[in-house]
Structures are given as C-alpha cells and as structure tokens.
Amino acid sequence: MQSLTIPRPDDWHLHLRDGAMLQTTVPATAAVFHRAVVMPNLVPPVTTVAAAMEYRERILAEIPAGMSFNPLMALYLTADTTPAEIAEAAANEYVIGFKLYPSGATTNSAAGVKSVEALAPVLAAMQEHQVPLLVHGEVTDSDIDIFDRERVFIERHLIPITERFPQLKLVLEHITTADAVKFVENANSNVAATMTPQHLLMNRNDLLVGGIRPHNYCLPILKRRSHQQVLQQAALSGNPKFFLGTDSAPHVQANKETACGCAGCYSAPAAIELYAEFFSQHNALDKLANFASVFGADFYQLPRNTETIELVQQPWTVAETVDTATGPMVPYWAGADLQWKLRS
Ligand SMILES: NC(=O)N[C@@H](CC(=O)O)C(=O)O
Ligand SMILES: [Zn+2]
Ligand SMILES: [Zn+2]
User: Fold this and answer.
1) What does the pLDDT read at residue 188?
2) Is 136 annotated as a binding residue?
3) Per the CATH hierarchy, to which homologous superfamily does domain 3-342 belong?
4) Which pTM was predicted?
5) Does the Cβ of 215 fall within 6 Å of ligand 1?
6) Whose CA is closest to 179, among 218, 140, 224?
7) Is ipTM > 0.90 here?
8) Domain boundaries, the chain
9) Residue 251 labelled as part of a binding site
C-alpha cells in the first residue's frame, strides 16, 4: 500500500460553532489538525479577548482524551473595536488576529463592518502591534453581482489597505478568483491567502449543473472553471503565500436543504483527504506537506509541528450524514469516494 507521511497539519480557517455542535466539530478537527484558527461568527459574535477565552475553554472541553489540539481564536472586528482591545489581543498567545466581515457578506455577519475606511485607526493599531487581519473579502452592494464581489472588494478595499499599511499582516481567506491570486502574488510578504478544498476541487458547474446542490454552496460562491484553474496553479506552485484553511462550516441538513439554504461546506470529516485528493489528481502529492503543514505556520511566525500524520492510498467513501446533537448534517463530498485516508 502506498503511504505518505507529512508533518501534522494546521487548519488556518474554520468554524466550530458553539454549544452541543462542539461535540461533533472539535473531535473531527482535532483528530487531524494540531492547531486551528477558529472563526468568531457566533451569535452574538466573539468581539473581545475575554469572550474568546471563554469560547476557547468550551472548545478545549470537547477535545477527546489523548488528542492535542490548540485552538487559536480570531476576534470579530466591529465598528466598536478599540485600539486597546488590539493591544490586549496582541499580548494573548491564543488570539491569532481579528476577522473583518463586511456586514451582510456571509453567515452571521450582521454585526460586521459597514465602513472599511472607518477602520483606519484600528488597522494602524494592528499594524503597530503586529496583529494579523483576516478578511472575508466580498463587497455586499446589491448592484455588484455575486460572482464579482471578491474582485471588487480587492480593488476597492484591499489594495488601498495594503498600500496604506504595508507592514500589516493580512490573510485573504477562502480565495475563489484569479483576481485574488494575482492580488496576493503581487502584494508584499505580509499578505497571504487560505484555500478551501471545495474551491480547489470544484467550480460553479458542480453547484448548478444537473440540479442545484446545496451542499456545494458556500461563500464566496464557487466561480467559473478558469478561476478554479488559477487557484489550482497557485496551490501547486509551492508559493508559500497560499496555504490550507478548510473553511469547514457546519450547518444542519435542514438548514441546507431548504428554500433559503445556508452557505457553508462541512469538510472537517475528510479535510486532509480532500486536499490529498486534489494534489494527487495533479500528480503533486509532494506539495501537500508544505501547503498543509508548513507555509501557514511560517506566515504566522509560529513553530512548525514536529509530530507527523500518515496517509495511505486506500479508497473510502465519505459518510452520507453525520449525526449531531442538533440533527443530522450532510458533510461536504458526502457519499463520494476519496483515494487517500488518514491512518488512525
Ligand atoms: N463560508 C461559508 O459559506 N460560510 C461560513 C462563513 C464564511 O466563512 O464566510 C459560515 O460560517 O457558515
Ligand atoms: Zn468567510
Ligand atoms: Zn469561514
């Protein structure tokens, strides 16, 4: 049997949710990843260091015995975030940065930012304290087509931010377009991007052809194939600015399969195997280790993991559903095959 050993990976962007859902999401991610950047889009959002530390304790309580897992918390940036909160976050090793959600852009973003320009004093504090800015990069103007929202956000907001704050560490999360790849490639070394399995493995045909597939619906929405191909080339290039962030985003089946379904793919149960599938499809499994386990740690100036995981070439099928305390969930890639499996 073919096998591949890589350093233990980290997930630099995901959603664990809260309450009983943590009983499902925390073990699934901790089984593979050593660290994970936990998104703060709860209701109410996690806006302070104190709230993040309480949330972190609730996560730690669900780690199965014998597993080591280090959740790194992202705080939710709002119009009320103060430079003092930034300084407190900078001093806390379990806070990774602040997350910018344009108001209304995605799940639980109502409390997000309405004016990016008004953030200037806070961004200046983040640059000064070397606190990273994590970005959901989409405008929300009703006159901007959903497929153009990432590109327009880059033009209107990200290019000016990087020009004004060149020392600010900035991660454009879950990139979906050739425009995002170009922006990150052209920016200085303080700018990086995370990439999800679905945006590497799929394009909008997988969402819309032959019937609408709600479990492939996430934000930013899957784009046309030419964008997918540019993302793939960026991941395959070995450029350290592009690294793993699953954006695993659980929603129960009833909230996905409905007239107005939620955005988000729950990829955690097959996360590393989905990326292995992508790299293996391109005969580039040798590129998985850096993408999954090295580039993110280096960008965040955190130690590289010394433990390893082993993947074996052993076809398996992702479960049709995952039971949770709040109802069944359909994982991303449900019922479909993968060629590589984590040896447990
Ligand atoms: N990606 C998604 O489609 N959904 C995420 C939010 C986000 O990351 O934008 C969620 O929290 O459900
Ligand atoms: Zn997002
Ligand atoms: Zn997300």
Assistant:
1) 98
2) yes
3) Metal-dependent hydrolases (3.20.20.140)
4) 0.98
5) no
6) 224
7) yes
8) 3-342
9) yes
